[in-house]
Every structure is written in C-alpha cells, then in structure tokens.
Amino acid sequence: MTHTKTLFFIALCASMASAMAQKAVKEAPGACPEAAEMDHRHLQGRWRADLEGQGTPVLLRLGPHPELAESVRGTAQRGGTTAQIVGDVDAGALTLEESLNGTNISATWIGQVVDGSCGKEVRGTWSNAQSPDRSIPFVLRKQAGQP
After folding, report:
1. Beta partners for 98?
2. Which helix (H) or strand (E) holds 45?
3. Which CATH class is domain 35-142?
4. Under a CB-based contact definition with an 8 Å cutoff, are residues 107 and 98 in contact?
5. Which of 58, 61, 90, 138 is most buried, with most CB under 10 Å away?
6. CA pair distance 31, 53, nearest whole angstrom
7. How far is CA 25 from the centre of its chain?
8. pTM for the whole thing?
C-alpha cells in the first residue's frame, strides 16, 4: 500500500510540474504565443509598419505603459515626424492610438495578430482621425532581435 501511495504522489508531482511548466511557457514574453494569447508584454519592442501605397515604413517603439498595467506606450516614427502611441492587444485584437501633439488622437491602428506568426505579425487598418475615409491597410512586423 505504501509503495502505491508513493507512486501516486510521484505521478501527481510530475503532472503538476508539467502543467506549471506549460503555463510558464505560454505566459513568457519570449515564447511563441497563439494570437489569442498575446498580451501587452508581447507588444513591447521595435516594430516596422508597412502601410499600403506608402513608400516609407513607420517604426514603432513600444514599451510598458507607466500608468496602465496592461497597455503599451511609445512612439511611431515616419520620416522626420514622431508621434506618441498607446494601446493594447486583447484576444488577438490590436488597438493603438496615435497622437501628433500628445493630447488629441490623430490616428488609430486596428488589427489582428496573424495566427501562426508567434505574435510577430499584425495586419489591419490605419485610419486618420481627421479623415476617417482615409484608411490604409498595414502590416506590422516585429523586428529581429526583439523579444
């Protein structure tokens, strides 16, 4: 009976350790998350945005938001212009708000994380806040060397 209890205890511990390890891998920012598992940690880093019909890519630099725990904050740089940007991702849906003056929203980025991209590609639409009819498809790609 004692031998059976010992084997049961060992199996239970191994099962719990395996479950904890799988959870840690899914939650780690460097892991390969499914689109629906993406969170603000996976957004942090440098991203290149290619907007359809625009010759110059936009470089986004995103880090943790100092006031909103589940969000990111950073900059969007295109040519000589730098805008502030804040946003988040929820169940694979990305929402970023861009501001040229730091007060008013000048554009929005709405997209979906691409399944199978390990959270390194997002496709969606960039929209100018002043001219909502001026929407441009974009592809965001995480830059190499970024977690």
Report:
1. 85, 107
2. strand 45-51
3. mainly beta
4. yes
5. 58
6. 33
7. 17
8. 0.76
